[in-house]
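Researcher: Structure for this, please.
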Amino acid sequence: NLPEEDGKSKLYVLASGGIDSTTLLHYYKSYDETPSVIHFQYHQPSYISEKKSIDALSEYYELELNVYNFDFPIIQEKYEFYGRNALFILAAASIVGESSRISLGIH
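Model: Predicted structure, token format:
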């Protein structure tokens, strides 16, 4: 079950537009939560399709979308970006401020 809302914390979902973040957005909406969406662009090969997907999801669920660009490279091997999710969490924590909840779907 979803933790009880304390009335003070805002929910942010880190979303790429893929199946994990799509499922997470649907999950929160099914509990009548209205998260804000944070999407990071980091020079990934799929940046165009991810941006289209997250735009469509945010519009469908009527959610605020915040897009941030990293202007530095993330070390990668083939299609794996090292430390990507940890970087996203730390960057989001520096953006959202106190009394906020950050959620992400990863596999």
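Researcher: Any notable elements?
Model: Strands lie at 10-14, 36-41, 65-69, 76-77, 80-81, 100-104. The chain has three helices and six strands.
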